[in-house]
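Inverse folding, one chain.
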Protein backbone atom coordinates (compact mmCIF):
# COMPACT_ATOMS: atom_id res chain seq x y z
CA UNK A 1 0.00 0.00 0.00
CA UNK A 2 1.25 3.43 -0.93
CA UNK A 3 1.89 5.89 1.91
CA UNK A 4 -0.58 8.72 1.36
CA UNK A 5 0.16 10.83 4.40
CA UNK A 6 1.80 13.37 2.10
CA UNK A 7 -1.71 14.41 0.90
CA UNK A 8 -1.13 13.01 -2.58
CA UNK A 9 -4.10 12.96 -4.97
CA UNK A 10 -2.79 9.75 -6.56
CA UNK A 11 -5.03 7.31 -4.70
CA UNK A 12 -4.08 3.69 -4.22
CA UNK A 13 -7.21 2.03 -5.55
CA UNK A 14 -6.02 -1.48 -4.76
CA UNK A 15 -7.01 -1.16 -1.08
CA UNK A 16 -10.69 -1.21 -2.05
CA UNK A 17 -12.65 -4.16 -3.34
CA UNK A 18 -15.50 -2.47 -5.19
CA UNK A 19 -15.69 -0.11 -8.15
CA UNK A 20 -18.49 2.33 -8.86
CA UNK A 21 -19.73 0.11 -11.69
CA UNK A 22 -20.24 -2.74 -9.20
CA UNK A 23 -22.34 -0.53 -6.89
CA UNK A 24 -24.47 0.70 -9.78
CA UNK A 25 -25.09 -2.79 -11.12
CA UNK A 26 -26.08 -3.95 -7.66
CA UNK A 27 -28.69 -1.19 -7.60
CA UNK A 28 -30.08 -1.67 -11.10
CA UNK A 29 -32.40 -4.67 -10.49
CA UNK A 30 -33.77 -3.11 -7.28
CA UNK A 31 -34.67 0.36 -8.59
CA UNK A 32 -38.23 -0.32 -9.77
CA UNK A 33 -39.25 -2.19 -6.60
CA UNK A 34 -37.78 0.41 -4.25
CA UNK A 35 -39.34 3.26 -6.21
CA UNK A 36 -42.74 1.57 -6.06
CA UNK A 37 -42.41 1.08 -2.31
CA UNK A 38 -41.39 4.69 -1.72
CA UNK A 39 -44.18 6.13 -3.86
CA UNK A 40 -46.71 3.90 -2.09
CA UNK A 41 -45.50 5.35 1.22
CA UNK A 42 -46.07 8.89 -0.10
CA UNK A 43 -42.42 9.81 -0.63
CA UNK A 44 -41.85 12.81 -2.92
CA UNK A 45 -38.32 13.80 -1.95
CA UNK A 46 -35.21 11.68 -1.47
CA UNK A 47 -32.17 12.62 0.60
CA UNK A 48 -29.38 10.27 -0.37
CA UNK A 49 -26.93 10.79 2.47
CA UNK A 50 -23.21 10.16 2.61
CA UNK A 51 -21.28 10.23 5.89
CA UNK A 52 -18.57 12.76 6.65
CA UNK A 53 -15.44 12.35 8.74
CA UNK A 54 -17.37 13.04 11.96
CA UNK A 55 -20.15 10.57 11.24
CA UNK A 56 -22.59 13.30 10.22
CA UNK A 57 -24.88 12.64 7.21
CA UNK A 58 -24.75 15.09 4.28
CA UNK A 59 -27.09 15.33 1.30
CA UNK A 60 -28.67 17.24 -1.59
CA UNK A 61 -32.43 16.51 -1.67
CA UNK A 62 -33.82 15.39 -5.04
CA UNK A 63 -37.41 14.87 -6.25
CA UNK A 64 -38.65 11.35 -6.96
CA UNK A 65 -38.56 12.16 -10.67
CA UNK A 66 -34.74 11.88 -10.46
CA UNK A 67 -34.76 8.66 -8.45
CA UNK A 68 -33.48 6.36 -11.20
CA UNK A 69 -30.62 8.69 -12.13
CA UNK A 70 -29.74 8.95 -8.46
CA UNK A 71 -29.52 5.16 -8.12
CA UNK A 72 -27.33 4.90 -11.23
CA UNK A 73 -24.73 7.35 -9.93
CA UNK A 74 -26.03 10.22 -12.09
CA UNK A 75 -27.42 12.27 -9.21
CA UNK A 76 -25.81 15.15 -7.34
CA UNK A 77 -22.05 15.24 -7.02
CA UNK A 78 -20.18 16.75 -4.11
CA UNK A 79 -16.98 18.66 -3.48
CA UNK A 80 -16.63 16.78 -0.21
CA UNK A 81 -13.16 18.17 0.36
CA UNK A 82 -14.59 21.69 0.53
CA UNK A 83 -16.80 21.08 3.57
CA UNK A 84 -15.74 17.95 5.38
CA UNK A 85 -12.34 18.60 6.98
CA UNK A 86 -10.48 16.49 4.42
CA UNK A 87 -7.93 18.79 2.77
CA UNK A 88 -6.13 16.20 0.65
CA UNK A 89 -7.79 17.45 -2.55
CA UNK A 90 -7.73 20.90 -4.09
CA UNK A 91 -10.35 23.05 -5.86
CA UNK A 92 -8.91 21.76 -9.16
CA UNK A 93 -9.70 18.09 -8.36
CA UNK A 94 -12.71 16.01 -9.37
CA UNK A 95 -15.85 15.93 -7.25
CA UNK A 96 -17.04 12.84 -5.42
CA UNK A 97 -19.91 10.78 -6.86
CA UNK A 98 -22.57 9.41 -4.54
CA UNK A 99 -24.24 6.03 -5.10
CA UNK A 100 -27.16 5.24 -2.76
CA UNK A 101 -27.37 1.82 -1.13
CA UNK A 102 -30.85 0.49 -1.90
CA UNK A 103 -30.59 -1.86 1.07
CA UNK A 104 -30.44 1.20 3.37
CA UNK A 105 -33.70 3.03 2.69
CA UNK A 106 -35.60 4.82 5.48
CA UNK A 107 -38.89 6.67 5.08
CA UNK A 108 -38.84 9.58 7.54
CA UNK A 109 -41.40 8.80 10.28
CA UNK A 110 -42.00 12.47 11.09
CA UNK A 111 -42.73 13.31 7.42
CA UNK A 112 -43.47 10.44 5.03
CA UNK A 113 -42.99 12.67 1.98
CA UNK A 114 -39.22 12.32 2.60
CA UNK A 115 -36.88 9.33 2.59
CA UNK A 116 -33.24 9.05 3.58
CA UNK A 117 -31.08 6.55 1.72
CA UNK A 118 -27.55 5.98 2.94
CA UNK A 119 -24.91 6.20 0.24
CA UNK A 120 -21.29 5.48 -0.55
CA UNK A 121 -18.86 7.96 -2.07
CA UNK A 122 -16.67 7.25 -5.10
CA UNK A 123 -13.86 9.30 -6.61
CA UNK A 124 -12.71 8.73 -10.17
CA UNK A 125 -14.34 5.30 -10.23
CA UNK A 126 -12.97 3.94 -6.94
CA UNK A 127 -14.34 4.22 -3.41
CA UNK A 128 -13.40 7.61 -2.02
CA UNK A 129 -10.70 7.08 0.57
CA UNK A 130 -12.23 9.52 3.05
CA UNK A 131 -15.62 7.79 3.05
CA UNK A 132 -16.20 6.21 6.49
CA UNK A 133 -19.02 4.00 5.19
CA UNK A 134 -16.66 2.56 2.59
CA UNK A 135 -14.07 1.90 5.32
CA UNK A 136 -16.62 -0.15 7.25
CA UNK A 137 -17.64 -2.07 4.13
CA UNK A 138 -13.99 -2.86 3.45
CA UNK A 139 -13.50 -4.07 7.05
CA UNK A 140 -16.59 -6.27 6.73
CA UNK A 141 -15.26 -7.70 3.47
CA UNK A 142 -11.86 -8.46 5.02
CA UNK A 143 -13.47 -10.16 8.02
CA UNK A 144 -15.57 -12.30 5.69
CA UNK A 145 -12.43 -13.34 3.85
CA UNK A 146 -11.11 -14.58 7.20
CA UNK A 147 -14.35 -16.45 7.90
CA UNK A 148 -16.24 -14.07 10.19
CA UNK A 149 -19.46 -12.03 10.11
CA UNK A 150 -19.81 -9.10 12.51
CA UNK A 151 -22.89 -8.03 14.44
CA UNK A 152 -23.46 -5.25 16.94
CA UNK A 153 -25.95 -3.66 19.24
CA UNK A 154 -25.54 -0.11 20.48
CA UNK A 155 -27.00 1.39 23.67
CA UNK A 156 -27.70 5.06 22.84
CA UNK A 157 -27.95 7.50 25.75
CA UNK A 158 -28.92 11.15 25.43
CA UNK A 159 -30.34 14.09 27.38
CA UNK A 160 -33.55 15.87 26.38
CA UNK A 161 -33.47 19.63 26.93
CA UNK A 162 -35.46 22.79 26.27
CA UNK A 163 -34.89 26.54 26.43
CA UNK A 164 -36.18 28.50 29.42
CA UNK A 165 -37.87 31.89 29.27
CA UNK A 166 -34.44 33.56 29.08
CA UNK A 167 -33.34 31.42 26.16
CA UNK A 168 -30.99 29.32 28.30
CA UNK A 169 -30.87 25.52 27.95
CA UNK A 170 -32.32 23.46 30.80
CA UNK A 171 -33.41 19.85 31.37
CA UNK A 172 -36.77 19.10 29.75
CA UNK A 173 -37.83 16.67 32.47
CA UNK A 174 -36.68 18.02 35.82
CA UNK A 175 -39.23 19.44 38.25
CA UNK A 176 -36.97 19.54 41.31
CA UNK A 177 -35.77 22.96 42.46
CA UNK A 178 -32.23 23.79 41.48
CA UNK A 179 -31.25 24.73 45.01
CA UNK A 180 -32.28 23.85 48.53
CA UNK A 181 -34.72 20.94 48.30
CA UNK A 182 -33.06 19.10 45.44
CA UNK A 183 -32.45 15.47 46.48
CA UNK A 184 -28.84 14.59 47.26
CA UNK A 185 -29.29 11.19 45.65
CA UNK A 186 -30.48 10.98 42.09
CA UNK A 187 -34.24 10.57 41.85
CA UNK A 188 -34.55 10.19 38.08
CA UNK A 189 -33.03 6.76 37.37
CA UNK A 190 -35.66 4.07 36.67
CA UNK A 191 -38.29 6.29 38.35
CA UNK A 192 -41.93 5.55 37.47
CA UNK A 193 -43.19 9.12 37.98
CA UNK A 194 -40.47 10.63 35.80
CA UNK A 195 -41.02 7.92 33.20
CA UNK A 196 -44.73 8.82 33.12
CA UNK A 197 -43.88 12.52 32.81
CA UNK A 198 -41.63 11.71 29.85
CA UNK A 199 -44.00 9.40 28.02
CA UNK A 200 -45.44 11.97 25.56
CA UNK A 201 -41.94 12.18 24.08
CA UNK A 202 -40.98 8.57 24.71
CA UNK A 203 -44.15 7.11 23.20
CA UNK A 204 -43.32 8.74 19.88
CA UNK A 205 -39.83 7.26 19.98
CA UNK A 206 -41.02 3.78 20.98
CA UNK A 207 -43.65 3.75 18.22
CA UNK A 208 -41.14 4.89 15.59
CA UNK A 209 -38.51 2.31 16.51
CA UNK A 210 -41.16 -0.41 16.60
CA UNK A 211 -42.56 0.62 13.22
CA UNK A 212 -39.04 0.59 11.77
CA UNK A 213 -38.80 -3.09 12.71
CA UNK A 214 -35.79 -2.64 15.00
CA UNK A 215 -37.33 -4.75 17.80
CA UNK A 216 -37.58 -2.16 20.54
CA UNK A 217 -36.96 -3.75 23.94
CA UNK A 218 -37.24 -0.94 26.50
CA UNK A 219 -36.55 2.66 27.39
CA UNK A 220 -34.55 3.54 30.49
CA UNK A 221 -34.88 6.69 32.56
CA UNK A 222 -31.15 6.96 33.20
CA UNK A 223 -29.13 8.40 36.06
CA UNK A 224 -29.13 12.10 35.10
CA UNK A 225 -32.29 14.16 35.06
CA UNK A 226 -33.88 14.04 31.59
CA UNK A 227 -31.43 11.36 30.42
CA UNK A 228 -32.68 8.28 28.57
CA UNK A 229 -31.43 5.11 26.93
CA UNK A 230 -33.13 3.20 24.11
CA UNK A 231 -32.55 -0.53 23.86
CA UNK A 232 -33.27 -2.19 20.53
CA UNK A 233 -32.08 -5.38 18.84
CA UNK A 234 -28.67 -6.02 17.33
CA UNK A 235 -28.06 -6.50 13.62
CA UNK A 236 -25.17 -6.69 11.14
CA UNK A 237 -22.55 -3.97 11.39
CA UNK A 238 -23.41 -1.91 8.31
CA UNK A 239 -27.11 -1.88 9.11
CA UNK A 240 -26.42 -0.97 12.74
CA UNK A 241 -24.21 1.93 11.67
CA UNK A 242 -26.95 3.26 9.37
CA UNK A 243 -29.56 2.80 12.09
CA UNK A 244 -27.39 4.64 14.61
CA UNK A 245 -27.12 7.68 12.34
CA UNK A 246 -30.81 7.57 11.43
CA UNK A 247 -31.75 7.30 15.12
CA UNK A 248 -29.80 10.45 15.92
CA UNK A 249 -31.79 12.24 13.21
CA UNK A 250 -35.10 10.84 14.49
CA UNK A 251 -34.37 11.80 18.09
CA UNK A 252 -33.72 15.40 17.11
CA UNK A 253 -36.82 15.64 14.93
CA UNK A 254 -39.15 14.12 17.54
CA UNK A 255 -37.75 16.43 20.22
CA UNK A 256 -38.40 19.45 17.98
CA UNK A 257 -42.04 18.42 17.62
CA UNK A 258 -42.35 18.66 21.42
CA UNK A 259 -40.61 22.03 21.69
CA UNK A 260 -37.41 20.44 22.98
CA UNK A 261 -34.01 19.39 21.71
CA UNK A 262 -31.69 16.43 22.25
CA UNK A 263 -28.00 16.65 23.08
CA UNK A 264 -25.53 13.82 22.52
CA UNK A 265 -22.82 15.72 24.38
CA UNK A 266 -21.49 13.08 26.80
CA UNK A 267 -21.10 15.32 29.84
CA UNK A 268 -23.08 18.62 29.79
CA UNK A 269 -22.43 19.45 33.48
CA UNK A 270 -20.16 18.22 36.25
CA UNK A 271 -23.03 16.64 38.20
CA UNK A 272 -24.51 14.74 35.28
CA UNK A 273 -24.08 11.08 34.55
CA UNK A 274 -22.19 10.58 31.32
CA UNK A 275 -24.21 9.77 28.19
CA UNK A 276 -22.57 6.76 26.59
CA UNK A 277 -23.29 4.44 23.67
CA UNK A 278 -21.95 1.03 24.66
CA UNK A 279 -21.07 -1.20 21.71
CA UNK A 280 -21.95 -4.89 21.96
CA UNK A 281 -19.97 -6.90 19.40
CA UNK A 282 -20.58 -10.52 18.44
CA UNK A 283 -19.25 -12.64 15.60
CA UNK A 284 -20.66 -15.51 13.60
CA UNK A 285 -18.89 -17.99 11.37
CA UNK A 286 -19.26 -17.12 7.70
CA UNK A 287 -19.85 -20.77 6.82
CA UNK A 288 -22.23 -21.34 9.74
CA UNK A 289 -24.49 -18.26 10.03
CA UNK A 290 -26.28 -18.06 13.34
CA UNK A 291 -23.46 -19.74 15.26
CA UNK A 292 -22.07 -17.31 17.84
CA UNK A 293 -18.27 -17.47 17.79
CA UNK A 294 -18.11 -16.22 21.38
CA UNK A 295 -20.23 -19.07 22.75
CA UNK A 296 -19.11 -22.66 23.38
CA UNK A 297 -21.22 -25.24 25.22
CA UNK A 298 -23.21 -22.47 26.87
CA UNK A 299 -20.08 -20.71 28.13
CA UNK A 300 -17.59 -18.20 26.76
CA UNK A 301 -15.39 -19.61 23.99
CA UNK A 302 -11.62 -19.36 23.71
CA UNK A 303 -12.20 -17.17 20.63
CA UNK A 304 -14.03 -14.63 22.78
CA UNK A 305 -10.92 -14.21 24.94
CA UNK A 306 -8.71 -13.75 21.89
CA UNK A 307 -11.13 -11.18 20.47
CA UNK A 308 -10.90 -9.25 23.75
CA UNK A 309 -7.12 -9.50 23.46
CA UNK A 310 -7.22 -7.92 20.02
CA UNK A 311 -9.43 -5.10 21.26
CA UNK A 312 -7.28 -4.47 24.31
CA UNK A 313 -4.12 -4.37 22.23
CA UNK A 314 -5.46 -1.35 20.30
CA UNK A 315 -7.67 0.10 23.03
CA UNK A 316 -6.11 3.56 23.19
CA UNK A 317 -6.36 4.10 19.43
CA UNK A 318 -9.88 2.67 19.38
CA UNK A 319 -10.88 5.13 22.10
CA UNK A 320 -9.84 8.02 19.84
CA UNK A 321 -12.72 6.88 17.61
CA UNK A 322 -15.28 5.81 20.22
CA UNK A 323 -14.74 8.90 22.40
CA UNK A 324 -13.82 11.48 19.79
CA UNK A 325 -14.35 14.90 21.42
CA UNK A 326 -12.75 16.82 24.27
CA UNK A 327 -15.87 16.46 26.38
CA UNK A 328 -15.87 12.65 26.06
CA UNK A 329 -13.03 12.39 28.57
CA UNK A 330 -14.84 14.37 31.26
CA UNK A 331 -16.99 11.28 31.65
CA UNK A 332 -14.25 8.61 31.74
CA UNK A 333 -13.44 9.18 35.40
CA UNK A 334 -14.06 6.97 38.46
CA UNK A 335 -15.60 9.52 40.83
CA UNK A 336 -17.17 12.97 40.68
CA UNK A 337 -17.62 15.33 43.59
CA UNK A 338 -21.19 16.53 43.97
CA UNK A 339 -22.41 13.74 41.72
CA UNK A 340 -26.18 13.30 41.62
CA UNK A 341 -26.60 9.70 42.68
CA UNK A 342 -23.48 8.97 44.71
CA UNK A 343 -19.82 9.34 43.90
CA UNK A 344 -18.80 6.56 41.49
CA UNK A 345 -19.62 7.10 37.84
CA UNK A 346 -20.05 3.52 36.54
CA UNK A 347 -17.93 4.69 33.62
CA UNK A 348 -14.90 2.69 32.39
CA UNK A 349 -11.52 4.04 33.40
CA UNK A 350 -9.09 1.19 32.70
CA UNK A 351 -8.18 -1.06 29.78
CA UNK A 352 -9.12 -4.48 31.03
CA UNK A 353 -12.01 -6.90 30.84
CA UNK A 354 -14.22 -8.67 33.32
CA UNK A 355 -17.26 -10.88 33.53
CA UNK A 356 -20.15 -8.46 34.00
CA UNK A 357 -17.73 -5.88 35.43
CA UNK A 358 -19.15 -2.45 34.59
CA UNK A 359 -16.04 -0.63 35.81
CA UNK A 360 -13.92 -2.27 33.07
CA UNK A 361 -13.67 -1.05 29.48
CA UNK A 362 -14.69 -4.44 28.11
CA UNK A 363 -17.49 -6.34 29.81
CA UNK A 364 -18.53 -9.91 29.10
CA UNK A 365 -22.19 -9.64 30.15
CA UNK A 366 -24.02 -12.30 32.11
CA UNK A 367 -27.07 -12.11 29.81
CA UNK A 368 -25.56 -12.48 26.33
CA UNK A 369 -22.41 -13.66 24.57
CA UNK A 370 -21.00 -10.45 23.18
CA UNK A 371 -18.13 -8.13 24.04
CA UNK A 372 -19.37 -4.81 25.40
CA UNK A 373 -17.09 -1.80 24.94
CA UNK A 374 -18.25 0.69 27.55
CA UNK A 375 -15.84 3.45 26.45
CA UNK A 376 -17.98 4.86 23.63
CA UNK A 377 -20.44 7.73 23.28
CA UNK A 378 -22.97 9.17 20.86
CA UNK A 379 -20.54 11.61 19.24
CA UNK A 380 -18.53 8.81 17.62
CA UNK A 381 -18.30 8.14 13.91
CA UNK A 382 -20.03 4.77 14.14
CA UNK A 383 -18.69 3.54 10.79
CA UNK A 384 -15.04 4.03 11.70
CA UNK A 385 -15.69 2.72 15.20
CA UNK A 386 -17.28 -0.52 14.02
CA UNK A 387 -14.63 -0.98 11.31
CA UNK A 388 -11.84 -0.71 13.87
CA UNK A 389 -13.71 -2.84 16.42
CA UNK A 390 -14.34 -5.66 13.96
CA UNK A 391 -10.81 -5.67 12.60
CA UNK A 392 -9.19 -5.72 16.05
CA UNK A 393 -11.44 -8.52 17.29
CA UNK A 394 -10.82 -10.71 14.24
CA UNK A 395 -7.09 -10.01 14.44
CA UNK A 396 -7.16 -11.12 18.06
CA UNK A 397 -8.77 -14.42 17.10
CA UNK A 398 -6.55 -15.07 14.10
CA UNK A 399 -3.35 -14.30 16.03
CA UNK A 400 -4.58 -15.74 19.35
CA UNK A 401 -3.86 -12.59 21.34
CA UNK A 402 -4.14 -13.44 25.03
CA UNK A 403 -5.87 -10.70 27.07
CA UNK A 404 -4.56 -12.07 30.36
CA UNK A 405 -6.72 -12.81 33.37
CA UNK A 406 -10.06 -11.00 33.77
CA UNK A 407 -10.40 -8.26 36.35
CA UNK A 408 -13.48 -9.24 38.32
CA UNK A 409 -13.24 -6.61 41.02
CA UNK A 410 -14.20 -2.97 41.54
CA UNK A 411 -11.65 -0.97 39.57
CA UNK A 412 -12.70 2.22 41.34
CA UNK A 413 -11.39 0.74 44.60
CA UNK A 414 -7.97 -0.27 43.21
CA UNK A 415 -4.84 1.77 43.79
CA UNK A 416 -2.26 2.82 41.22
CA UNK A 417 0.13 0.27 42.71
CA UNK A 418 -2.44 -2.48 42.22
CA UNK A 419 -3.00 -1.44 38.60
CA UNK A 420 0.73 -1.52 37.96
CA UNK A 421 1.12 -4.92 39.59
CA UNK A 422 -1.76 -6.34 37.51
CA UNK A 423 -0.49 -4.72 34.29
CA UNK A 424 -3.73 -2.77 33.83
CA UNK A 425 -3.44 0.35 31.66
CA UNK A 426 -5.43 3.53 32.17
CA UNK A 427 -7.79 4.63 29.43
CA UNK A 428 -6.64 7.88 27.79
CA UNK A 429 -7.33 10.74 30.17
CA UNK A 430 -7.89 13.26 27.39
CA UNK A 431 -8.32 13.60 23.65
CA UNK A 432 -4.65 14.44 23.06
CA UNK A 433 -3.47 11.15 24.56
CA UNK A 434 -6.03 9.25 22.49
CA UNK A 435 -5.18 10.87 19.16
CA UNK A 436 -1.46 10.37 19.78
CA UNK A 437 -2.21 6.67 20.23
CA UNK A 438 -4.22 6.67 17.01
CA UNK A 439 -1.28 8.27 15.21
CA UNK A 440 1.06 5.45 16.27
CA UNK A 441 -1.33 2.54 15.69
CA UNK A 442 -0.72 0.57 12.49
CA UNK A 443 -4.10 -1.16 12.72
CA UNK A 444 -5.85 2.20 12.64
CA UNK A 445 -3.81 3.16 9.58
CA UNK A 446 -4.96 -0.03 7.86
CA UNK A 447 -8.64 0.36 8.83
CA UNK A 448 -8.99 4.06 8.06
CA UNK A 449 -6.40 4.29 5.31
CA UNK A 450 -3.55 6.78 5.67
CA UNK A 451 -5.38 9.72 4.05
CA UNK A 452 -8.50 9.47 6.20
CA UNK A 453 -6.47 8.87 9.35
CA UNK A 454 -4.31 11.89 8.55
CA UNK A 455 -7.36 14.10 8.04
CA UNK A 456 -8.95 12.85 11.25
CA UNK A 457 -5.77 13.49 13.21
CA UNK A 458 -5.40 16.98 11.78
CA UNK A 459 -8.92 17.95 12.74
CA UNK A 460 -8.76 16.40 16.20
CA UNK A 461 -5.40 17.97 16.92
CA UNK A 462 -6.86 21.35 15.94
CA UNK A 463 -9.85 20.67 18.20
CA UNK A 464 -7.51 19.94 21.10
CA UNK A 465 -5.35 23.01 20.47
CA UNK A 466 -8.37 25.30 20.34
CA UNK A 467 -9.75 23.81 23.55
CA UNK A 468 -6.37 23.95 25.27
CA UNK A 469 -6.01 27.64 24.42
CA UNK A 470 -9.42 28.58 25.85
CA UNK A 471 -9.80 30.07 29.32
CA UNK A 472 -12.63 28.39 31.23
CA UNK A 473 -14.87 29.69 33.99
CA UNK A 474 -13.28 27.13 36.30
CA UNK A 475 -9.81 28.58 35.70
CA UNK A 476 -11.00 32.12 36.38
CA UNK A 477 -12.73 31.10 39.60
CA UNK A 478 -9.77 28.98 40.74
CA UNK A 479 -6.87 31.30 39.93
CA UNK A 480 -7.92 34.92 39.32
CA UNK A 481 -7.83 36.01 42.96
CA UNK A 482 -5.59 33.24 44.31
CA UNK A 483 -2.49 34.39 42.49
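Residues assigned per position:
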Amino acid sequence: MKDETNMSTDFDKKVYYEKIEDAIERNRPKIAEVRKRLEAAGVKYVMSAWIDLHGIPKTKPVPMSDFEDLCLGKGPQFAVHSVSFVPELSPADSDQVMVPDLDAVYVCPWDNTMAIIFADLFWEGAPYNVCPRQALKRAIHEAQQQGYLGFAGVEPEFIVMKYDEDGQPEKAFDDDPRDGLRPRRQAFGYDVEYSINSMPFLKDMIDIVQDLGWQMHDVVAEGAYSQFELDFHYTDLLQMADRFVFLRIVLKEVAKSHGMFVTFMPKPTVGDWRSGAHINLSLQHRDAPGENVFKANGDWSEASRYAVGGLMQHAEALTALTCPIVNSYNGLVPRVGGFEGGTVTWAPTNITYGYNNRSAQFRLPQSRHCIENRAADMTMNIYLTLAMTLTCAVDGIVNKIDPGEPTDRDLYAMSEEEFKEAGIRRLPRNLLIAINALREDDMAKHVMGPVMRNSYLQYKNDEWERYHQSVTDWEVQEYLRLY
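The first strand starts at residue 45 and ends at 51. Confidence is low (pLDDT under 50) at residues 1-15.
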